[in-house]
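Sanity check

After download, print the first record. It should look like this:
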Amino acid sequence: MLFAVRLIFVVLLVVVVTVTVASSRSIEEFGPPFVVGLVVASVGVGVVVLLLDVLTPNKKLTSVVGVYLGICLGLVAAVAFGSLIDIVARAWDIAQGPAQVYLSLTKIIIGIVLCYLATSIVLTTKDDFRMVIPYVQFDRKPDQYAPVLLDSSSLIDGRLEALASAGLVDAHLVVPRFILDELQALCDSEDRHKRARGRRGLDAVSRMQTSPRMDLRVQDVPLDGRGADRMLVECAARDHLRIATCDAGLQRVAQISGVQVINLHEVSAALRPPIQQGEPITVTVTRAGEQPGQGVGHLPDGTMVVVDGGAAYIGSEAACTITNVLQTQTGRIIFSRVDPPQSGSAASMGAAATAQEIDASHVGDAPLRGGPVRTSSASSRNPRRA
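Expected structure tokens:
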């Protein structure tokens, strides 16, 4: 569509110039070379305009409106200065003769200078303006509805997709093109784990683009030749965006630069039910801990639980009591201890059965199968020798 619009623009420009010159009465005075020159000049103007359009692919509406407003203000100021120059020239009687050429040239130069100055002032101070007209708001302050930039870690993680599918994300989601290139590089890696991470991130982008509850856009960012984290921070700072990430290092750099960051680990921790010291939990112990007698298990949400005395429960569930909760940058770690078995329970009965001593006084009452009859030491002695 854009190629067709550009082609129509060039053809229309050449046709209008050709028809206008051909219909003029003075065309016979200039001859065919003049017509060919005008056509070539019109094509050159069209090519210059197309080059400017192609070399600036990421046009901002605020910048375009700022240029237009600057030119309009410059032209109005040029007309005012031109009228003032005409009044002075008539008062001094210098509006006749060769001085008229210099007066016209002075007004043109003043008009160009004023248009440039007005455009430059509007573009450099656009953050100080506020306009009520929709889509022409220069001072775009970051708010709770600012679009969210996604980095590779947030796409690979997958929790943001779940939150957006649940309707908790109302803002627009933006994936820079260089993030897709980073995921593609992971897919081409020789490490199978990196390949899996890259494919998971690209699959997440595909699903989020087709989801009716999400508005995800892929944006070209002209910041090539820099690190992905630096480009994310600069893009967010320039366009007043937020960043969603799982990288604590990127979060610190962005906060130093004044960019708002959404850490998915913090969001996940906020959505977890609160766990207080002294609460009972049941966890499946999967492996031994670092300290002797410790076991390690995980809750259904992935929270690691260190069980004191849980080494004997590896491969089975253990009833524990929380002793401490440690919050880290990557999540939380729960420390607990195994509860003592209650009386009457299967665990207490098993412990009692293993701890019960055998009464040797009744062993000799019945013969053992497949062996000699065993008697106690008292009955085995000869009464006559006693």
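If your output differs, re-run the checksum step. Summary of this record's structure: The chain has three domains: 31-128, 148-270, 276-338.
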